[in-house]
Specification:
The chain is of the alpha+beta class and 247 residues long. It has helices at 86-102, 110-122, 128-142, 189-200, 213-231, 236-245; strands at 3-15, 21-27, 31-37, 56-62, 68-77, 163-166, 171-174, 185-187.
Length: 247
């Protein structure tokens, strides 16, 4: 079958030769996929609206020798709220880059698609900081990197007293197991319990969680350390999001 249909969220669009663009999609059916949209830069192109970054679209793709191409497209949701302010666009850029960095081509994961779809609905509403933190912990968990947050990951004992987070060990450790080397962050009980709630609560409700500023900084630092450890790099658009957010 030369043509097939996918439900896709547009992660990235890069200008190619002439009027073409290479589009990075995250699809419900196939996971991440890169395709080419021929002629989409032309003013008369009917595909332009369907391949705008951070849009949810239904696309008809045609199989190609190198990259499949977009034959037709229907925009289903453009998430207008996130486009109304710089904070929403910065957060959408960060989350899209995070998905791109953590996933490989054509490895389907429908829960990741659903998480991204539900999160984009929430962006731009003034709660982007907490929504982004929920997305980070949920995404890594869905992809098999869920950190241990319930007990010491080294001795399996309930953690009493001070709690530390070690990305290279995969979660929290007690004071007795704390190694002498490695990236370590001491974590307050409040921040730890809030992080558990961000993971546990349904995506549509996480915007109701009120983050104490200090706990928010702790959680952000924990997750950034964890993400950098697993990716062996940072997320470029994260710096822009921080600049816009001011945290």
């Amino acid at each position: 079958m030369k043509e097939y249909i996918v439900d896709a969220i547009i992660l990235k669009s890069v200008r190619a030769r002439e009027a073409d663009r290479v589009i990075t999609l995250y699809t419900r059916q196939l996971g991440k996929k890169r395709v080419v949209a021929h002629g989409v830069e032309k003013p008369t192109s009917r595909k332009r609206g369907a391949v705008q970054p951070f849009s949810h679209s239904r696309l008809m793709l045609r199989r190609g020798r190198d990259l499949d191409s977009v034959s037709q497209g229907e925009g289903l949701e453009i998430f207008p709220v996130l486009r109304q302010n710089l904070e929403g666009l910065a957060a959408a850029s960060y989350l899209a880059e995070l998905v791109d960095a953590f996933t490989v081509d054509e490895d389907p994961n429908p829960p990741v698609f659903q998480l991204l779809l539900e999160t984009f609905v929430l962006l731009g509403g003034g709660r982007d900081f907490v929504v982004a933190r929920a997305f980070e912990i949920k995404l890594v968990s869905l992809l098999g990197y869920r950190p241990g947050l319930e007990e010491c990951v080294l001795c399996s004992a309930p953690v009493e007293g001070k709690v530390y987070f070690l990305p290279d060990q995969g979660g929290i450790v007690c004071g007795g197991c704390l190694p002498d080397t490695g990236r370590t962050q001491e974590v307050s009980r409040g921040a730890l319990e809030t992080l558990k709630a961000l993971l546990r609560w349904e995506t549509g409700r996480v915007g109701r969680i009120r983050l104490d500023p200090a706990a928010g900084r702790e959680i952000k630092n924990m997750l950034q350390l964890f993400i950098r450890y697993h990716l062996e790099k940072g997320i470029k658009s994260g710096k822009f999001m921080d600049l816009v957010d001011g945290r």
